[in-house]
Amino acid sequence: MSVVLNICFGMLSLAMLISVIRLVRGPSLPDRVVALDLVGVLVVGMIILYDVATQLAVFLDAAIVLALVGFAGTVAFAKYLERRARPD
Amino acid sequence: MLTGCAFLLLAAVGILRMPDIFTRMSASSKATTLGIGCMLIALALHFRDVGVTTKVLLVIAFFFLKAPVAAHVLARAAYRIGTPLWKETFVDELREYYDQEEYLVHRRGGLERPGEASPQADEAQDTSPPST
After folding, report:
1. Residue numbers in B near A44 (CB within 8 A)
2. Residue (of B13, B8, B10, B62) closest to B36 by Cα position
3. Which string of DSSP letters, residue by residue, matches B85-131?
4. Which end of chain A offers a freer environment for a tag, N or C, measured as fewer CB atoms within 10 Å?
5. Nearest CA of chain B to the CA of A73: how many Å?
6. Are the C-beta atoms of B82 and A49 separated by less than 8 Å?
7. What is the model's pTM?
8. ipTM above 0.95, yes or no
9. From the list A15, A30, A75, which residue is nearest B21 (CB)?
10. How many CB pairs under 8 A join A and B?
11. What is the pLDDT of residues B54-83, one digit of tens each?
């Protein structure tokens, strides 16, 4: 069980590293927003893994809140991009 | 659990490797939905508790609702601000109907009405015709 958990943590860490590379390198601003969204999803995945590793289910509430905030942030970024393209 | 992590890693690799913003968004939205879904189901099977399972179902439903909405909103914003497409993308069906100045999608053969469309109404134009 712990071997599986270690493999999963490693894969998620690698995925987060790759996303951060895209976040830094991204040619345009929407690329960075997509990468930031993916980082938020990966943090939710890490919280789920941490639940299993510590045998505590209370962190799932944090995962719910983080998913909600990440979604709101993504939509707000998209609105900001559209608004910035053409100021009224 | 391992499957979910594999799909999340796949999403990240897709983000890194895909050539333009729209293919990147496609890779990330679908793969993360499946990955998070698999991991949450693994969590529910691990704890076997009614409260945990309820929360897991809630999060899964939320992810299935949020991922297409977020991808759609972001893609619309990216298209509107003129993010360049991949150089091997040949089909861009929206281009001929799309007025970059007014942010309006014209129907085929429809005349442009420069006086009627006010710039402030561009968000309302997407779903409903102007009521004035």
Report:
1. 36
2. B8
3. PPTT----TTGGGEETTTTEEPPTTPPP-TTT--GGGGTTTTTS---
4. C
5. 10
6. no
7. 0.72
8. no
9. A30
10. 143
11. 988 988 898 889 888 888 888 887 777 766
